[in-house]
Specification:
118 residues, mainly alpha, elongated
Length: 118
């Protein structure tokens, strides 16, 4: 992989206006979308369980202040909107859904570890 290819991938990935790759099959695009949405939902559930039952705290300062001000309902609304944005942003993109889903899988693993060891 050349430096130019890596730069092009980075510019494409971090663009706010996603460039859709219509060579990607609808099946693969839908799998990527499902991966993003499932990991977002799992993060929401594991964070809620950790805060409610395990005495965990939210590590993200913005989300922690949102939780303090609006509770779990406000947190869930923002997470749902974020999941919708990430799903839209990553749809029919070659790497984005897999990178986003992979990162949130790591977040989920961390949440589960915190719940189990608190």
């Amino acid at each position: 992989m050349t430096t130019t290819t890596i730069k092009r991938m980075a510019r494409s990935f971090f663009s706010l206006r996603p460039v859709r790759d219509y060579a990607i099959s609808t099946h693969r695009a839908n799998l990527g979308l499902a991966f993003v949405l499932i990991t977002q939902f799992a993060d929401l559930v594991s964070t809620s369980v950790g805060i409610t039952y395990a005495g965990a705290t939210e590590a993200n300062g913005i989300m922690a202040s949102l939780l303090a001000q609006y509770g779990l309902f406000g947190f869930a609304v923002v997470k749902t909107l974020g999941a919708a944005f990430l799903g839209w942003h990553s749809y029919r993109r070659r790497y984005a859904p897999w990178v986003i889903g992979g990162l949130y899988t790591l977040v989920l693993i961390n949440n589960i570890a915190v719940i189990l060891w608190l």
